[in-house]
Amino acid sequence: MTTDTAGRDIDTALELIHDVATRLAGAMGRVIEGKDEVVRTTITVLFASGHLLIEDVPGVGKTMLAKSLARSIDATVRRIQFTPDLLPSDVTGVSVFNQDARTFEFRPGAIFANVVVGDEINRASPKTQSALLESMEERQVTADGTTYRLQEPFIVMATQNPIEMEGTYPLPEAQRDRFMARISMGYPSPRAELELLETHGARSPLESLTPVTDAATVVSVIEAVTRVHASPAVRQYIVDLVDRSRSSTALRLGASPRAGLHLLRASRAHAALEGRDHVIPDDVQALAVAVLAHRLMPSSETQLARRTTSEVVSDLLRQTPVPPAAR
Which stretches within the chain are classed as H helix? Predict the structure, then answer.
């Protein structure tokens, strides 16, 4: 392939990414008032083929955000309401004996969908939460010795309340590490809240939300994002940032190699949304807190100082020099 042909191909890919992102943002923006940055991060994670954890107090629109993305894509959607009595087989599926055929038949669980909305994931037991581990990482389910592939695209959008809320279980470290990013909705501004009362007061905007793209197009966008160039200097910057977290005295547990991979993929998607065919340090810095903070475990001193892991990541960004070649 010649340089000109490759250039035209990436330009076409960027146009597709911009078009789909604009349509998704417009559709979701009609439901989620005044949260443009949250919507943009959600789309970034989708295009980076990741999973999203939405953490905040009840009533700020976590589930509404997840459902608005699900309804904006013409794809299969399943919702799982996580409760203390939810079983792993309810998530992954179960083998049932067929009396007529005298064989066991596998009945897929709720995880077999393009978009899986996991509502209040930290209300389920750790055993049930762990049922998602294989699905989220390997995009497959193994039951009774047989492996079943999941559909593409595949994204888990899970909501959770803060762990100090009553009746919740903290997510295991392995579970948190499989979420590409964590975001918080936050309270709306007074103006946005007034608009919310006007638009949501009579009926939910979700009722009139129609798909603006389909699963096949999203798969094409995800493939296009992987072609966004990340220079060796940018990749070194990500490695330096992740490595610094492992030696930080403010943390008991630093970022994993998977965290670095997720940060690279998310940075590629961010660059594409900005209309660039290459990643720059600004892309990494824009997403570092969302991608890294939820994976880290603060030290006792950090907890006593009431500092969050998001603040620690911000410090790491200031302390980690950007390679000259990456600028």
Answer: 3-29, 36-47, 62-72, 88-92, 126-129, 133-138, 173-177, 190-200, 215-225, 232-247, 257-273, 281-292, 300-304, 309-319
Place of tokens 């193994």: 142
* Cβ neighbours for 117, distance < 8 A, ≥ 6 positions apart: 63, 66, 67, 70, 77, 78, 79, 80, 157, 158
Residue 227 has a pLDDT of 92
CA-CA distances (angstroms) from residue 200 to 68, 128, 185?
Answer: 14, 34, 17
* DSSP characters over 180-229: SEEE---PPPHHHHHHHHHHHTTS-GGGG---SEEHHHHHHHHHHHTTSB
Residue 287 confidence (pLDDT) above 90: yes
161/151 Cα distance (integer angstroms): 28
The fold of the 229-327 domain, in CATH, is Helicase, Ruva Protein; domain 3 (1.10.8)
Which neighbouring-strand residues pair with 115?
77, 155
Please state the domain extents for the chain: 229-327
**This model's pTM is above 0.85:** yes
**Is the pLDDT assigned to residue 51 strictly greater than 50?**
yes
pLDDT over 60 (residue 75): yes
Q: Which two tokens stand for residue 327?
A: 């600028």
Q: Is 78 exposed, middle or buried (0-12, 13-18, 19+ CB in 10 A)?
A: middle
Q: Are 66 and 18 in contact (CB under 8 A)?
A: no
pLDDT digits (tens, 9 = 90+) for 248-257: 999 999 999 9
Rounded to the nearest integer, the mean pLDDT of the chain is 88
Report pLDDT digits (tens) over 138-170: 999 988 788 999 989 999 999 988 766 667 778
